[in-house]
Specification:
Largest sheet: none
Number of helices: 15
Structural class: mainly alpha
Order of helices and strands: HHHHHHHHHHHHHHH
Strand content: under 5%
Radius of gyration: 21 Å
Shape: globular
């Protein structure tokens, strides 16, 4: 694996820390800015929505720009967004800085994923994506708890300054180690790239990714009150259990990235199935402390076990438009990260309790499994003529996907 891919993973660590750290900083931000905690919570929603909108927009806007130059510009803009957030005197300016940061983050994810894929062979795509997603997992294990610690002891603005510093380190790594990725001999055409959306497999991939991510985050977003109000744990244990989820995510990313290249659909289907089982167990055993703690790790593992396969699958079905493929995957994950918590909140508002968010999440992942099976059948049906014609010769690489 090229060192440059690990530099992209380091960059994603900074991006992921910024995206998720506000969950531990809402009370001091609300107090300092003179707003309610729900209003402060809109800063999280703004980032997620900015990711959904920003990924395809920036992918299109930078389609004909050099990849390395684009990465440098986007990580610089992201770092400036963190500085602006740290210095923001009002809630409105802080909100604006989050939207700007989200756009830069989304663009970096889309272009960075395309660059990572371009630097490796086809049979290493899932491993390359696992390195990038690993940066996100480490952000959950180290970056988010560190942000909460800094916010408690040095003020919430110190967390923004720290992410800005991490962005500067990532920028230095990109300048030093990311090679120039030559543009294709034929200039990218927006019309040609947009044709990927005519393919049913692309839409199936989007739906599976959004539902798989949304199902997990439907429950995970409300894990903290479930731990304290349902399981009866002291609030001081919450950060440690959230970190345990992150450790599971890192382990799942590592294992999934190594297996997915050989068994793409197997990782997708069985990984999402495992998440469904664990979510059901969480709903049934929410009042048992030991079970909840163990399930926090297992859900983190199963959710991120599938992530490299979900990313690689999109690049396989939309290979003619790698930048839009990365942007589409980023948008799909963030659709899930936005819709899952919304569904969980709706369940809670209906008076069904915190544990019911796991049932709702399980319903989303069951739907994801059904769509993944449909995608597998469609993939086999499309490749059937190839098998007959090429029975005496090797089939083209990558068709059909391996189970």
């Amino acid at each position: 694996m090229p060192v440059a891919v690990y530099i992209l993973g380091l960059s994603v660590f900074a991006l992921g820390t910024s995206e998720f750290m506000l969950s531990g900083l809402l009370p001091p931000i609300a107090e300092d800015m003179g707003v309610t905690i729900p209003q402060a919570g809109l800063l999280i929603s703004a980032f997620a929505i900015g990711m959904v909108v920003g990924a395809p927009l920036l992918a299109v806007a930078t389609l004909r720009l050099p990849r390395r130059t684009t990465l440098i510009a986007l990580i610089s803009l992201f770092g400036l967004g963190q500085v602006a957030g740290a210095l923001a005197p009002t809630y409105e300016l802080l909100f604006t800085s989050r939207v700007v940061s989200a756009f830069a983050c989304a663009g970096f994810w889309a272009v960075g994923a395309a660059v990572a894929i371009a630097m490796v062979d086809r049979d290493q795509r899932a491993r390359a994506m696992a390195v990038m997603i690993g940066g996100l997992s480490i952000a959950n294990v180290l970056g988010v708890p560190a942000g909460a610690f800094l916010g408690e002891h040095l003020g919430w603005r110190s967390a923004f300054w720290s992410v800005g510093a991490a962005s500067a380190v990532a920028l230095a790594g990109i300048l030093a180690l990311i090679p120039k990725i030559p543009l294709p001999a034929e200039k990218p055409s927006l019309g040609r790239e947009l044709r990927i959306y005519r393919d049913r497999q692309v839409w199936l991939s989007i739906a599976v990714t959004a539902l798989a991510a949304g199902g997990v985050f439907c429950a995970f977003s409300y894990l903290s009150p479930l731990l304290t109000d349902v399981a009866g744990l002291d609030s001081r244990w919450v950060p440690w259990i959230l970190a345990l989820f992150g450790i599971g995510a890192l382990a799942g990313t590592t294992v999934g990235g190594r297996v997915a290249d050989a068994h793409l659909f197997g990782v997708m289907i069985w990984g999402i199935t495992a998440s469904t089982v664990f979510l059901g167990a969480l709903a049934l055993l929410a009042s048992f402390q030991v079970a909840v703690v163990a399930l926090a790790f297992l859900i983190g593992f199963s959710a991120f076990f599938t992530a490299p396969a979900l990313n690689a699958r999109m690049f396989n079905v939309a290979g003619a438009a790698p930048t839009l493929a990365g942007a589409t995957t980023t948008a799909a994950f963030n659709l899930g990260n936005t819709g899952g918590p919304w569904l969980g909140g709706t369940v809670i508002d209906a008076g069904l309790g915190f544990a019911a968010t796991a049932w709702a999440g399980g319903a989303m992942t069951v739907t994801a499994i059904a769509l993944a099976v449909a995608a597998l059948r469609l993939d086999r049906r499309r490749s059937a003529p190839t098998r007959v014609v090429a029975s005496s010769t090797p089939a083209p690489a990558g068709t059909p996907e391996k189970v």
